């Protein structure tokens, strides 16, 4: 069995479900039905949601399971929220401009690694 398509492969618009069929009793219902929100997600986004739920929303554990950084998990979560049709608010910069410059300077001088910079930026 195939998963339901949510977007038209020709023009990209949202598809509408117009017929439902029961294989057991051969009943068919026609009309205009709204697909569930999760059908709007890509297979990768659905996999992310599954991992997110399995890890009870703990972003660090999600990152470990997926082998990605904390900021990447946050970005993917924000993508899923937007794909479900919710407003995603821009997060304010959590470090000062001076702190950001110092991190970049330390990185350029080899005092810290890029992973450490990402960790500091993502966990504040």
Describe this entry's structure for a reader.
The structure is a single chain. The protein is 44% helix and 9% strand. Strands 1-2 form a two-stranded antiparallel ribbon. With 124 residues, the protein is mainly alpha-helical. The chain has helices at residues 43-54, 59-66, 70-83, 97-108, 114-122; strands spanning 17-21, 28-33. The radius of gyration is 21 Å and the shape is elongated. The mean pLDDT is 86. The relative contact order is 0.10. It contains 5 helices and 2 strands.
Task: Provide the descriptors you would attach to this structure in a database record.
mainly alpha; 5 helices; 2 strands; 124 residues
Secondary-structure class: mainly alpha
What is the straight-line distance between the termini? 45 Å
Overall pLDDT score: 86
Q: Helical percent range?
A: 40-55%
Question: Main beta sheet, described?
Answer: 2 strands, antiparallel
Summarize the structure.
The protein is mainly alpha-helical and 124 residues long. The chain is built from 5 helices and 2 strands.
Describe the secondary-structure layout.
Elements: E1 17-21, E2 28-33, H1 43-54, H2 59-66, H3 70-83, H4 97-108, H5 114-122
Antiparallel strand pairs: 1-2
Helix pairs in contact: 1-2, 1-3, 2-3
